[in-house]
Automatic annotation (TrEMBL):
<protein>
    <recommendedName>
        <fullName>Alpha-1,3-glucosyltransferase</fullName>
        <ecNumber>2.4.1.-</ecNumber>
    </recommendedName>
</protein>
<keyword id="KW-0472">Membrane</keyword>
<keyword id="KW-0808">Transferase</keyword>
<feature type="transmembrane region" description="Helical">
    <location>
        <begin position="746"/>
        <end position="765"/>
    </location>
</feature>
<feature type="transmembrane region" description="Helical">
    <location>
        <begin position="348"/>
        <end position="372"/>
    </location>
</feature>
<dbReference type="InterPro" id="IPR013022">
    <property type="entry name" value="Xyl_isomerase-like_TIM-brl"/>
</dbReference>
<feature type="transmembrane region" description="Helical">
    <location>
        <begin position="577"/>
        <end position="597"/>
    </location>
</feature>
<feature type="transmembrane region" description="Helical">
    <location>
        <begin position="635"/>
        <end position="650"/>
    </location>
</feature>
<feature type="transmembrane region" description="Helical">
    <location>
        <begin position="662"/>
        <end position="683"/>
    </location>
</feature>
<dbReference type="InterPro" id="IPR004856">
    <property type="entry name" value="Glyco_trans_ALG6/ALG8"/>
</dbReference>
<feature type="transmembrane region" description="Helical">
    <location>
        <begin position="721"/>
        <end position="740"/>
    </location>
</feature>
<feature type="transmembrane region" description="Helical">
    <location>
        <begin position="384"/>
        <end position="407"/>
    </location>
</feature>
<keyword id="KW-1133">Transmembrane helix</keyword>
<keyword id="KW-0328">Glycosyltransferase</keyword>
<dbReference type="InterPro" id="IPR036237">
    <property type="entry name" value="Xyl_isomerase-like_sf"/>
</dbReference>
<feature type="domain" description="Xylose isomerase-like TIM barrel">
    <location>
        <begin position="37"/>
        <end position="273"/>
    </location>
</feature>
<dbReference type="GO" id="GO:0006487">
    <property type="term" value="P:protein N-linked glycosylation"/>
</dbReference>
Amino acid sequence: MYSAIKTSNNSNSSNLIGIHGYNLVGCWDRIHCEKAFKIASEIGYSLVEVPVIDPLFDTQATKQLADKYGLRLSCSVGLSQDTDISSLDESTRKQGEQVLMTAVERAHAIGSPIVCGVIYSKLEILRRVAQKAQSLGVQLGLEVCNKYETNLINTAGDAMKMIQRIGMPNVVVHLDAYHMNIDENDPIAAIDECQSRLGYFHIGESHRGYLGTGNISLRSILRALARIEYSGPLVFESFSNEIVSPFVTEALAIWRNQWEDGEQVAKHALAFIQSECYKSTDMDVHRYWKVLTLYLPPQKWYTDTRSPWTLDYPPGFACLEWLLAHMVALVDKHLFQLDQSVTRLDIWIMRSTVVLCDLCLAHAVYLHLNIFRKYQPEISDTRLSFVFAVFVLQPSLFFVDHIHFQYNGFLIACLFYSSYFFRLGKYLSFLCSVAILVLLKQTFLYIVPVSIFACTCQRYVARYQTKGMITFCRLFIQSSIVFAFFVLLGISPWIVYKGQWRILCGRLFPFHRGLLHAYWAPHFWALYGCLDLFSRKCIQLVFPHSQMAAKMRNITSSATRGWIGIRKPFVVLPNPSPWMCHVLVVVGMLFCFYRLWKKRHLLLHPIDSMWLWVRAWSGVWLSSFLFGWHVHEKAILMPQFCMLWYCLIKEEDEKHQGLLRWWWWLTSMISTVASSCMVPLIFGCLERIVVLGWILWMMMYLLVVEMTWRIQSRWRRRYLILHQLVLLLLLGLPGIVHRWLPRFPFLPQMLLSGYGGIICGWVYVEMVFGGQEELLEHRSMAGSCSPVVVLVQWNTSKASKTFFEYSSLEEALLGICSCQRTFALFTTIASTPMFAIR
């Protein structure tokens, strides 16, 4: 069983995406080598193909610099007329053989597993070179070239015949999309023909320019590679005489430039390849974590480094993986064989674990709704069923958990369990549940101060309010000690193990990953990045010849140019440190403490405490989301789900109709942004159909709103419609940009995150500083809803109407459309007695 983990290093869960060195530099001395590695690493490539026979090639420097920038290497060789091994001249053949032998030795020295290129065709020489390569653990890749460059191997069939005649197992086929477009009748059939020996693949366009702008169906080629489970490198190759040497320009007949900026074309190529052959790694991550926790003892969970998917969640989540692993092991042993490909059964089994954990969310919501039923018996089962459907059928949660494969539904359920104990006044259970939250995910540390403060306020108001602030401080210290005891109890095994505490802290708080995550979340730093780009362009436009403008043109590591995971992502504006981000988060939380203290007398009521408590949590989560370090886009789920509760308040008094609409509007804005910012996570045919259905459904929603909306003021109605249209435009922008503006592949993502940052920042200001205090004094509830909440409670007269009492079909359609999701039909089913909460 232990061997299952040992094989993880040899299994390629995803292809390495690389770039040819001549895309970035024109020669290969130490200076240009470091420049190429630095650019490739910052853009996000995992591999660089190096010209191993370059006259200036430095083996030791290449190896050291590759290790420095964390890159893998491959080698390519091109034989000239003076080194042609098929020549009739004996000295020329010997010289060519010596070149290939040198290439193999250099490849072995720098850690390259393959030497590829046009290295044929004398069989005896190739066989001797292959034997030498095999002894060093190196493969030979025979590149299939078009008929204008060679007459020996023009198709994949020719390469397979040559490999059979050589008779060595370490000789593989090297295909190139550019050459296949010229000589292959059917590139897809060519891939199928050599799938058993395919070891290397070049991605290139028909004109050697920006990918996706030529006549090659690269999408079909990448899908064919995925279908045959090709696990080798995918290397982008595109040459321009702006960069490469005159010798290479003449040899490859590069007479017309398709691009001038190698960095821009390289960045676009990576974005294109990733979008077309995207594979979520979350499946591989959780699969490995299950194997890790199942076969290794707990003291080795955080010290194992044999896989890139190291465990970086707290011990509580590791124990959850351990429990799920034992459950999965009862039905699917194949899932734990990391050296084998994942089957459809494995995927369904892993998905079932997500569904099983999401059932906890349904149960947590059910407990809260039962409290509302107990204290407000006038609420019907139909309305409670709609409210129930609001939480369990969220599009943003569906995108992240069920398509991108994560367990956020379970974490939100645990959050709701803790708030359930708070509403019941069970202090010990509440503090224990908050400790469990921290043990499940380290980001829950943000809510610890406000949770302990609220618990202390509740105890203080209930028993000790007349005894002064000293008693309050004593209660706060008691609650903090109880919380710390539960946390220490959970992590005590890893504190006892020698050296584990420092390793655990390094895994849980990896500040070296940079300020921004791979997909920009709609937070303050996204807006900050847009401002940085605007400032940079203004300086270059107003002062084009200044030293500052020249310095900016030489800077490559910029978040506004599509690079992430770096410590200093901004060029003009100051770069924040991790501690500065934490200070901003804490300052943003202080107002939540003030509001809790001011309204602490409401914490004793099960209904009013819910609204006060949820508002405090929403403010804390929004503060951590907006200003936190390395925030993922999925972090917006926490404030979104907390704010959903506010849309369930029912105000019978016309005096408070505006307050209900105000909260309804805030939740509408943040919910649409939350769902939209998850769209970049969605790839693949089926997933895109889901997103397309959601977008079409949003358009229907806008149409119905235009016809029948009567509850909002005119400016709010117009702005919300404009907001929806802007999101639609931004969601459809990537296709336009990739086709017509290939030099700006990250522009749609930047605009979407920047606009989302404005909306989330405004919602945070309204949430924290808004003066809607009277809302907490009224204890009634109904199933009303924003674009993500299922039912809108209309109050056109003193008597309110339920869902099936609308006066027109348009209003009924609006009630359905207001859920703003693909699965609106399920919410209608939820209104039947079969799904009613009894």
